[in-house]
Amino acid sequence: MSQRLLVLLFAAATLAFPFVPGVPEFWITLADYIGLFSLVALGLVVLTGVGGMTSFGQAAFVGFGAYTTAVMTLNWGVSPWLTLPVALAITALAALLIGAVTVRLSGHYLPLGTIAWGISIYYVFGNTPWLGAHDGLSGIPPLSIGTFALYDARAFYLVLWFVLAAALLATANLLNSRLGRGIRALRRGARAAEAFGIDTARAKLIVFVYAALLAALSGWLYAHFQRAVNPSAFGLNAGIEYLLMAVVGGAGSIPGALLGAAIVTILKDVLQDILPGLLGAAGNFETIVFGILLVVLLQTARDGLWPLVARLLPAPPPLPVPVAAPLPRRTLPPPGTPLVAVEAARKAFGGLTAVNDVSFTVHAGEIVGLIGPNGAGKSTTFNLITGMLRLTAGEVRFDGERIDGLPSQAIAARGIARTFQHVKLVPEMSVLENVALGAHLRGRAGMLRALLRLDRAEETQLLAEAARQLERVGLAEHMHRPAGALALGPLRLAEIARALCLDPTLLLLDEPAAGLRHREKQALADLLRRLRGEGLGIVLVEHDMDFVMGLTDRLVVLDFGVKIAEGAPAAVRNDPAVVEAYLGGVA
Amino acid sequence: MDATIALFLVQDGILNGAIYALLAVALVLVFAVTRVILIPQGEFVAYGALTLAALEAGIVPGTVWLLAGLAPVAAALEFWRQRHGLDARRSGRIVLVDLVLPGALLSLAVALAPTKPAFPVAVLLTLALVAPLGPLLYRVAFQPLADAPVLVLLIVAVGVHLALTGLGLVFFGAEGMRTSPLSASMFSLGDLVVTGQSLAVVATSGALLLALWLFFDRTLIGKALRASAVNRIGARLVGIPTAMSGRLAFLMAAGIGAFSGILIGPVTTIYYDTGFLVGLKGFVAAIVGGLVSYPITVAAALVVGLVEAFASFGASAFKEVIVFMIILPVLLWRSLRGAPVEDED
């Protein structure tokens, strides 16, 4: 049975559920709540599981959606359908403001920040008289289609699950797009994403607003389903519960949102029935179980329950190799044109000067080796050229224009591509998708086209380009495997393929041959010679001297941040200063 | 606002600030040693105050049942952890520390509670009942995840907070309680009435902060704790058992929390869920100190107390909003000083 069929079966069963004779009304109500909570959990999957930003504050955005429609329908008699765009717009604005601060928070400061604004917004809801203060607002009209009002849980169910299905589909589309690859790289490959032109701060903000909008949509539906709102549903505990749903289901996967919401909602209902009887008093005893559940789950199944379910499902069919007309390429400057000129570049980390007044130029159609003992400042030089580090003094020019001080994305846009000494690929993404990240700047599709799946023609072109570059480095057979499953050598080759996807003018390779076998090294050298023939400028940091000597046109030697020699490989090899640096002085 | 009110608010602010300082120092300590952001710190405060209130009312506090529930789990985990190389001596130790000792505490509490023990006895018993919860929770919830990322530990901490709040409702009920003051005296300085309680709070928290400083600066255990804070693996290599450091940090945090509850119980009505907000305000201070610096943390705690006092006078409905909004610019400033783009490990 194919996966598509399973999804269709699940959708059909969900659609039929309220019409099965004998299904109690109460089950339908419960399913309605599961749907409402799934929307919020889905936002958390994108925000926390994929984007790596843990939020305890999503319930506040549910509140924005719910209160907006409550106030508008109650006070001004506006139709609920007309309040939806307003609710979304207000939430988007709030999320942009809150997100502008939040997504800049690093590490554990971010979730703490969400706790702070989550609590604050709750108190604002609870103390604002025109929002009904702690009592909230009631008497909200139900949704209606024509003259038919959706009072009934069954009627509401159809609207709700239609909305949810659309949200699930749109989210899946988003994650499988050009922008989605950038989002999926946020958690474990943000630096690499920056190096290939993705504005990670913007991508984080997009994810933040998207999750908030899903929460607001849920809040809007919730207000018309409950027909009353009060602040307790939008406080921190509710926010924690939403996060619990995402963690239980598996924060990294879209179906996990549904699974988590279902488990937590049903469990809560069952516990609310049983526990007060057991404990002989009324109260929110389910929080005890939820708390313990959260701890036990993180100790035993940190990726949630969906991966355990997914294991029982049939494996997806092998994906086809994407084929499309090639992307347009930039015209390379004629061989011998100066590309990048590093002029008296200096980088000091406190008292340590890692790069000390280093100058060199790389031309189109040549391979320059940047060599030197460990700690000589080779990788730091790469980071200075690609804008990952700021110069302390000096200049970097590309094509005559100063590029030091520009952000990494702008430098990538000029055609400078790099690989990393410590491989930076997203382990859970396929090799193909990782490599396609390199072609990010050659596509244009944005959020809307991604959500509506109008980006397919361009997507195929980007993926086909990635497939072509993988073929070139000899990794075609591995393209659909997750990057985490590859050994170090192939990973380095995949990084080169990713760099080639940028259609670079200048290629910076940080130890590309480390971890490669002899044959692979030969193939890599052949590839680099071909690229040189096409007119690329290539800079190579490498410790394998046979590889370097046989391949490069020119060497630049660094030692303790200082350039000690430059010239043809044969000349540099016999340079006394170089011999001294590598082998130490002869006593 | 006249000078009398202002002085009164200052007194109130310093009183609360002193409590926040204690909690914030405990949070910094726990984070430094274990990388756990101890969201449930506030629950120790509530448990401390409510345990004391129960003892004063002659009721066996529910805390004993939590102790009775956690200790066997911790013992079982310990047996499992040491299953290779378990001998009579080690087994005996586990039985003694994790079963006999909590059992003795439980019996003592059950025997003493109905007699409405004298205040100092009740305070000591409260500390003896709440403080061990710290290391027990560490061993059951956090130690199995000692090498997990900070974010995972944070979510676990939220889970523990959730469970403890729910249990607090079961143990102590939904009613708020106050405990007897440490000192009932009052005297006036000009227009200002100073309560003996506030002096007692400031004096004892000051003394406790001083003692903590001496502990970290002068004792071998204190230095070992600081060492495991700086470098876990390094500390382990020179023979400092880091799991032991974690337990000790949690013991101190729970003890400080319970003690804060005893200090704050006479001036604020404590409900089963009051601790969370109190603890979070300690957090605001701890974060201003970057979860690292003790002196900045203490100063920030006093500022939080003062801001809260003046906010509750000027805009009482939005007091909490104001206090928690202080934290956002601080978080932002802390983040911007760090690396611009980082990858999760």
Write a compact overview of the structure shown.
The complex is a heterodimer of chains A (587) and B (345). By secondary structure, chain A is of the alpha/beta class.
Description:
The complex is a heterodimer of chains A (587) and B (345). Chain A is an alpha/beta fold. Chain A has helices spanning 3-16, 25-50, 58-76, 80-102, 109-127, 153-175, 178-184, 190-195, 200-226, 236-249, 254-279, 286-300, 306-312, 378-385, 408-413, 431-436, 447-451, 456-473, 488-501, 518-534, 545-551, 569-573, 576-583, and strands spanning 137-138, 144-145, 148-149, 228-229, 338-349, 352-363, 367-371, 393-398, 401-402, 416-418, 506-510, 537-541, 554-559, 562-567. A six-stranded mixed beta sheet of chain A has the order 10-11-12-7-13-14, with helices on both faces. Chain A has a four-stranded antiparallel beta sheet with strand order 6-5-8-9, with helices on one face. In chain A, helix 2 (25-50) packs parallel to helix 6 (153-175) and helix 2 runs antiparallel to helix 9 (200-226). Chain B has helices spanning 3-34, 41-56, 63-81, 88-112, 119-130, 133-142, 150-172, 196-218, 220-230, 232-237, 242-264, 274-288, 294-314, 319-325, 327-336; strands at residues 186-189, 192-195. In chain B, 73% of the residues lie in helices and 2% in strands. Chain B has one domain (3-334). Chains A and B meet through helix 5, helix 8, helix 10 and helix 12 of A and helix 7, helix 12, helix 14 and helix 15 of B.
Q: How would the global form of chain B be characterised?
A: globular
Number of separate strands of chain A: 14
Number of strands of chain B: 2
Regarding quaternary structure, how should these chains be classified? heterodimer
Strand order of the largest sheet of chain B: 1-2
Report the average pLDDT across residues of chain B. 86
Query: Which residue ranges of chain A are poorly predicted, with pLDDT under 50 across at least 5 consecutive positions?
Result: none
Task: Tell me about the largest β-sheet of chain A.
Answer: 6 strands, mixed
Rg of chain A, rounded, reads: 28 Å
Beta fraction of the residues of chain B? under 5%
Main sheet of chain B, how many strands, which sense, barrel? 2 strands, antiparallel
